[in-house]
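Build the 3D complex.
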Amino acid sequence: MTTTESVRARTNPSIETAHSVVETGLDSDALVTIFGECTVDYEGRAESTLGPGDRHVMCKPDGTVLVHTDEGHQPVNWQPPGCTHEVSVDDALVLRSERSTPEEELLVRFRDVEHVAAFDVTDPEELSLSGTEEDLRERVLDDPELIEPGFTPLSTERETPAGAVDIYGEDANGRSVVVELKRRRVGPDAVGQLARYVEALERDLHDEAEVRGILVAPSVTDRARTLLAERGLEFVSLEP
Amino acid sequence: MTTTESVRARTNPSIETAHSVVETGLDSDALVTIFGECTVDYEGRAESTLGPGDRHVMCKPDGTVLVHTDEGHQPVNWQPPGCTHEVSVDDALVLRSERSTPEEELLVRFRDVEHVAAFDVTDPEELSLSGTEEDLRERVLDDPELIEPGFTPLSTERETPAGAVDIYGEDANGRSVVVELKRRRVGPDAVGQLARYVEALERDLHDEAEVRGILVAPSVTDRARTLLAERGLEFVSLEP
DNA sequence: CTCTGTATATCGTGC
DNA sequence: GCACGATGTACAGAG
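Done.
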């Protein structure tokens, strides 16, 4: 195995060998993984400590660090993209990752490294995702009758003092309509959002007629339905 | 290397060898990683496809799958805990992960496996985290004067028709107070949340005097400050 | 299961 | 940089 290979890996390496693989990997913008017994300390937006245990640590060339245990989607500790890594050896293999704004530091100490690897990554592809809120918006703009007969979209992302409205338009009677789209079942927060937009737009337009607010989502919770009714807002069921 | 080792790894394995390591690993509740050129297809709450490229795939014994590229904190594709994995070979190494409620499927096809590993994980430790909203609440309960002189907490998680209030109490004049805590700078959503609680509690109490609503956070955005003023709500600055 | 709210949320976009 | 909203958000707690 040479450094020109796209993968450099060692099982049960010495701390020094592990250090070499990690350092070389970080320098060459490889994706580096370390598995072994470690402790983890974090200080920044919050603070945390994690006692000794086996974890899988991934360092990405963009400065991301992820510490994974055997459970859960979420890493037990991490550092976001843009951090600077630093690896050193004392009685353990030490990985330190820092950033500023906000000031944050992650410190991983490996007593024992069971596996280390550096991967050269070539990934030219972008994820193609559908079924998002934007897809839902395009569908409504293609066929405004999905909202109600006579509905006419006038603009998307219309700016109000309360933020940008998903779809702004008019109904069959020429009344202003604010449409808020959600790709999944919504709770009270979405009602609050729609209410803010309607309120802001009524002020903005100095309109005599009230502005209608329509929440478009697959479904709503009971509490959200009550809030909609209280505020005179409407609901249209639409799957993404 | 034998199966009693805590790590089983192969660099540039054949598809068949990779299949063996992955299958054995999944069967023995190991944490399994695969690195190589693959495509990824997802169908469930949304749909996605990802063309060929080098990615790092992790399968956890709890049924989690994570597909990572060389960038970002977030996996490009994933499957949450509780999924069932299935690995097979045709012209590629195929990993399929499924779950129900909601019905979701992830399919990863490796044309070429550059590295595969199975790790036995022993992790007895729990993360100790501080600086959360709960810590902030305990600090306020220990020293209610942090809110204002004369404030007396009466209960936490008090239930209202709009949900549970962080801290419910009385001010020096015996007026009811709703406190909403946030560990970081807040925007309009938090104001809406507090407003809902205040409104619900006023109804609940049939109180003649208005209920005060106090947002406690390190800081607020301009828009949130405006909304607070419009609704007659208050703000107290407090770091977590 | 659903509902609700928190998160070291992350991420993208616009200003 | 900050602000704001979407996310296949994940996750925990309560009902």
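DSSP finds four helices and 14 strands in chain A.
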